[in-house]
Amino acid sequence: MRIIAISDLHMSKPASKAAAEATVAEEADVLFVAGDISHGKLNNAVELLEILGRSKVTIFFVPGNMDTPQLSSWSSDNLRNLHGRCERYGFYTLVGLGGSIMTPFNTPFEFNEQEAEEILNRALQKCDAGSLVLISHSPPRDTDLDMTRSGMHAGSRSVRDFIISKNPLLVVCGHIHEAQGIDKLGETTIVNPGPAYLGGYARIELDDKVQVRLARFSVS
Fold it and tell me: How far apart are CA 217 and CA 67, in angstroms?
């Protein structure tokens, strides 16, 4: 399965158009969107998701902490909301966690670590076991992908614990713009594609093993 993964559009229509074009150009099977699509307005987030939908592939997304909580219950036929849910896609079980753990900024969609743990565990109970993939706006704690410019780790302990206990093949996250990169926890490959509004994305080949290439599209 070939995946294009993005995060942190932050209201950018040009980035949404460029991401859709990159998805087509890369001949992807599916597009993952790891949150912060808009800034608190449902109609804006839906508009951007529909622009991504021009790629004509199935899109799996979660909201971010900057998105309205209303987005956590919105889906359409090819725009699949994974927050607190799971879906089978081919050989894979996809699970999602939107929003983020608490921040100092009082953003629209936050919760504590216990709530994050409960959301993840409930979601996984709804699907049969399979090769697991997690889309989470929050990165796991104490990795290269949750390090802020100030040198603090700002990821989620619940996401980290979930990865360690459930051993997903792949985790796609975002949230920490400056922490674009690839890391591993055990055998799990974790990818922060970088902020899409600045052109960041990842091309992922998911088969017997996970192969990731970080890339950029032009945002004009």
Answer: 23
* Model confidence pLDDT, tens digit, residues 148-157: 998 989 999 9
**DSSP-derived pairing of the beta strands 2-6 and 200-206:** antiparallel
Low-confidence ranges of the chain (pLDDT < 50): none
CA-CA distance, 168 to 185, in Å (whole number)? 10
CA-nearest of 175, 174, 176, 169 to 204 is 169
pTM assigned to the model: 0.97
Least Cα distance to 161 among 125, 191, 116 occurs for: 116
73 contacts: CB under 8 Å, gap ≥ 6:
81
CATH topology of domain 2-216: Purple Acid Phosphatase; chain A, domain 2 (3.60.21)
| CA–CA gap between residue 6 and residue 36 (Å, rounded) | 10
